[in-house]
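ok posting inputs for the zinc ion job
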Amino acid sequence: MQESVQQRVILRLAVPVPLRRLFDYLPPEGLSPELLQPGQRLWVPFAGRKLVAVLLEIVQESPHTGLKPALGLVDSQVLFGHDSRKLLAWIADYYQAPLGEVYATALPVALRKGKPADHWAEQWLQLTIEGKGLPESALARAPKQQALLQVLLRDGKQSRTHLKTLGHNPTAIRALQDRGLVEWESGPTVPSPLPAAERAPVPELNSEQQQVLEAIDGSCFSASLLEGTTGSGKTEVYLRLIQQVLDSGRQALLLVPEIGLTPQTLRRITSRFPTRSIAALHSGLADGERAQSWLAAAGGQADIVIGTRSVIMTPLPRLGVVIVDEEHDASFKQQDGVRYSARDLAVVLGRNANVPVLLGSATPSLETLHNALSGRYQHLRMRHRAGDAKPPQIHVVPTLREPLEEGFSPQVLRHIGDTLMRGEQALVFINRRGFAPALSCDDCGWLADCPHCSSKLTMHRRQRQLRCHHCDYRRPLVDSCPQCHSHSISALGGGTERSEELLARRFGEYPVIRVDRDTTASKQALDKLLAPAREGKPCLLLGTQMLAKGHHLPRVTLVVIQDADGGLFSADFRAPERTGQLLEQVAGRAGRGSLSGRVLVQSRFPEHPLLQLLLEKGYGAFARQLLRDRAVAQLPPVNAMALLRAECEEPRWAEEFLHNARLFMQSLVPPSPQIQYLGPVPALLERKSGRFRFYLQVTAQSRAQLQPLLARVCAWAEGNKNRRLRWAVDMDAQEL
Ligand code: ADP
Ligand code: ZN
Ligand code: ZN
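and the output
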């Protein structure tokens, strides 16, 4: 006789609150527990509110009493499969983040707020079993049906919207349906990032590209650094890898930096894979579009998923490869909330899914380079430019004691003029936007400061404003000193706006295109702005680092770097690395076509050994030297480093909190050669938006020593009752 055992069903959920624990609930009343599965979203009551939580486990016992029932399922869909839950748990653990917040970060806003997934459902056309058995040449007598059949055979199922943009008509679809070869099914839409483009010609691979592709085994995990000169054809390698993965019926994930996801990049991908469903995920999307793309990725409908940082948390059930383009880019690190590095997570994701991971850059981060040089990652290199482009020639132009005109040496201005006259294009890189980074009174020395930050206000002349670039505080430009009423006020230093004025005056017969955050509110605006440059007419481009990446402008033969010195003397130990990357990337814009390129680098300190090394031997040698320096100083990536951050309107409280944290940690692990403490010290930008910021730095010879200590200090800090003080752990922090 069978005994009926009364089993309790308890739901263990990730609830979006800043507490490092899970919460137990009873199943929703009236809902059969068989309908519940890990990875689903549920509505739960929490402290008088109704929140969207994610079911992680169904258990039989709970250490807690007085459990409340959950309110109900948001929908029946399992959004987070097993692999995805594993990655998110790893993130919470490694970055010391509350798991509920990790899930909230992974979900697009609309789904986080509880919109059901089928809100965006649409119809997908797929082959039936009979359809799948047909040869490509079947139906030769009905060309429209045959074309459609070929797309479905070659590239898999297609959404109704996508079929429309591809130009397939409903009559052909119905005819195939009547023959029992195709059928409709419901699934999420993938809004195409761009209208389907013409299939672009595929270049023959050169031998370096071929070797790289042969070194990557598509069938299992490996992590590789592709260190390839700018213009060496890395993107072509990515496209081939993606092709292989699509051919094997799997999804490709491509991560790009924030300013790298331009219409130009998307065009290159859509034109190579016009019949594939491509989901693009980036911050420029409306909530609904973002949710749709996310669901298409998570449901497996999207073949190619391309996105910025947060795309790394999107579940991908058929993942076949992870590619990170410009892996050194700082935008892969999230600087608030869950402070993860998408580039590092790419490797974790690839390992979990047992698929290859490729990190590509002309200027690899020291972290990745260290992993490659120590043998943890495979080190692949491409040293030559693809096609017939040659590497540019680099010259330093000393600027100390030179008669500069708005920051430009006469020699540089002459070269710009010559370039334009030859019908070619010049690009001028200036690291600061606005007219001038400071405004000062000549008589009493008054400086325009931000009232909320420890920084100067930048003068924007066209808008007649002074603006803080840290908190966006704005005030009208003054024409007399607020302190002594003198009218002799000077703009100190230069920015893009100031240079634009000079260059437009000097070279007014050519288009002068300024590219910075003030002129390009959107990616589309940038695309439009660059149109004359793409057409190949002689023109002058000037701008900030937005110009350093991703743009392939074959008629640019001269690149000018107005000031190479900024990063060489910063208090941030990462500044030389970033400067080196930026200079090499900007220089890499020169001579990408058949015309040869020249780079002019203005510097007040042309003898600086790091600058010399960079300009003479290139970024590779420069980065290896920096790595040796970091090892000596016991800094990352050789040592592991985490910051405990605190910020507060009252500086004393932040400092005191960190001081106590240090005492607490030292009582657990006293300082030693293995673990070292520094601080509390003020952040480089000490005051931001009215709050004083401090950090405590903990370095360790290994992460294994650091992790348990961080977990303990988080538990300690959660007991902090000062509501006006904000604190965070920043593992592998990128900013000081
Ligand atoms: P990277 O991503 O390394 O900067 P790209 O992939 O953008 O380089 O390639 C630079 C240029 O060279 C592009 O115009 C690209 O079309 C071209 N290219 C890439 N691979 C080849 C090849 N094998 N043969 C000819 N041209 C190529
Ligand atoms: Zn004054
Ligand atoms: Zn400010």
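notes: Confidence is low (pLDDT under 50) at residues 1-5. The first helix runs from residue 82 to 94.
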